[in-house]
Amino acid sequence: MQDQIRISCSRQNLQQVRDFVRSFLLAAHRSELLVNQVVLAVDEVVANFIIHANGEDANQFLDLLLVLADHHLDIEIEDHGSTIFLPLGKVANPDLRAYIQQGRKGGMGMALVSRIMDQVEFFERNSHTVCHLRKTLAS
After folding, report:
1. Number of Cβ within a 10 Å radius of residue 115
2. Taking CA atoms, which of 8, 52, 75, 138 is between 20 and 30 Å from 46?
C-alpha cells in the first residue's frame, strides 16, 4: 500500500499533511497510538523543511511518499528547494530539566522524531534533500 502528496512550503499545508498521514494509516487499520506518533513525527520533519530549509517560500514544494509493506512503514519527504538541508549527524538526547529551567522553546522536535521512528536519515538525491523515516510495525 502506498500514497503520495505534494505540498507547497507554507505552514498552512501542515494540516493537510497531518490529515494525509492520518487517513493513510487509519485505512491500513493501524492503532490510534501509532497514527498519532507517526503524524507527530512527519509533521515535525515537514515543518522543519518548510520553515528552516525553505523560509516558508510557497513557490518551493515537498513531496511525501508513504509506503506500508512487510511490517514496515517507510516515509520519504523530498525537498525540492534550492538548498541542501542536511541536519548534522545523530540528534542528541536533550536534558529536559535544563530546557525547563532555561525556559527554552524549540529544538526538541528532531529528538522526538528519533524516539518515535526506528530510523531517521537525511541524504541528498538528485540535488534534493530527502528525509527517510522508517517504523517497524507489529504483525
Report:
1. 12
2. 138
Domain count, the chain: 1
Spatial contact of 9 and 56, defined as CB atoms under 8 Å apart: yes
CATH number at residue 48: 3.30.565.10
pLDDT above 50 (res 138):
yes
Judge whether 129 and 121 are in contact, CB under 8 Å: no
Cell representation of residue 59: 513557490
Give tens-digit pLDDT for 61-89: 999 999 999 899 999 999 998 777 777 55
Which residues contact residue 92 at a Cβ distance below 8 angstroms, ignoring those fewer than 6 apart?
Answer: 111
pLDDT of res. 99: 47
